[in-house]
Amino acid sequence: MIDHQQRHDRMGAVTRTSVVSAVVNLVLTMVKVVVGLFANSQALIADGIHSLSDLLSDLLVWVAGRHATQAPDEEHPYGHGRLETLATLILGVLFIGVGVGIGWDATDRLFHPAELPQPGMLALWAAGASILVKEWLFWYALHYAKRVRSDMLRANAWHHRTDAISSIVVFVGLGGTMAGLTYLDAIAAALVAVMIAKVGWDLGFEAVKELIDTGLEEERVAAIRATIATVGGVRDLHMLRTRKHGGQASADVHLLVDPRISVSEGHAIAVMVEQRLKHEIDEITDVTVHIDPEDDDAAPPTMGLPLRAEALGRLDRHWAGIAAANHRTGVTLHYLGGRIEVEVMLPLAIVEGDPEQPRILGERLQAAVSDDADFGRVTACFH
């Protein structure tokens, strides 16, 4: 899970980038639309509407960011990271809608040549300024996105980059139109529309994949496997599952360990795997480890076997005729291969004086459970 400091850093990054972007986009929207109207440039007006969509997305990023960085609570035990994913999906739909609207208008104007205006020099200067400002915003937002590992901020950063590219298209279209190619301004507007819609589709597609719990990319899963393999005591792993949520990722995995180690040693291995994954795999913030004594997929199932209380009761009945069994000091049960293997601890004093007694007693204990299909090997240990 994300700790308090990480939440504080993410919220600070979201607030800073959102405020700076909102102020810049508000200014760009006003300049582009006003200049576009006075300079007769449909492409620049389209670019201004694009900047207006940026302003709305900045507001959405800020609102979603504030809620997404909240600590886990009773109703949201895994945190609120999916709000970032939802915000990214809404941004994608918004961009597609803006792109379709601008493209429709530009296409309509192309089929009505009389409506094509002649842009002025002021529009060219406005487009040039927009290119420089938007490129700076891209690097500013991307810096914070990488710093706090936020897909939502990264999406917003790349939106600034597409704005810069769309302004380049507008700049070229304006230059060509002023040189006598009157269709270029409307064509530039249509190209901007396609670019906006493409960004929206990419963002929406990735957000939907995350909402339906699509796993991490193959190379990241391979990195997780390699990291787990470095932990001592891990014989193998299986049933590795991953999912993303708002720039972070969770993983759960089954680890195959020596079936006869203690519960505490198995727990120590699980803790080490969790710590190493969180330290070495950047996006991993939550890990669930299941310790297996054998491969669940390949080994016979242990379902239906009696648990300890019932198993000991049955052993008492099986060993009722063996007096030495009443002196046992402990019993360890191993659920392996679809049966229960038994290690019974006995005091050495009960077999002293006869070197054959340990073997004979072990064979008697084994023979007593031979008719019970739930029990396998019985090992007598003397101390």
Please give a structural write-up:
This protein has 383 residues and is an alpha/beta fold. The protein has three domains: 4-211, Alpha-lytic protease prodomain-like (Up-down Bundle); 218-292, Cation efflux protein, cytoplasmic domain (Alpha-Beta Plaits); 308-382, Alpha-Beta Plaits. It is 60% helix and 13% strand. It has ten helices and six strands. The chain has helices at residues 4-38, 42-68, 82-110, 121-148, 151-178, 184-211, 218-229, 263-280, 308-318, 357-368; strands spanning 236-245, 248-256, 284-292, 330-336, 339-346, 375-382. The strands form two sheets. Strands 1-2-3 form a three-stranded mixed beta sheet. Strands 4-5-6 form a three-stranded mixed beta sheet. α2 runs antiparallel to α3 and α5 (151-178) runs antiparallel to α6. The two termini are 46 Å apart.
Shape: rod-shaped
The residue-averaged pLDDT reads 81
CATH classification class of the largest domain: Mainly Alpha
Summing up helix and strand content along with how strands pair, one would put the structural category as alpha/beta
CATH topology of the largest domain: Alpha-lytic protease prodomain-like
Question: Helical percent range?
Answer: 55-70%
The description of the largest β-sheet is:
3 strands, mixed
* Oligomeric state: single chain
Short description, anyone?
With 383 residues, the protein is of the alpha/beta class. The protein has 10 helices and 6 strands.
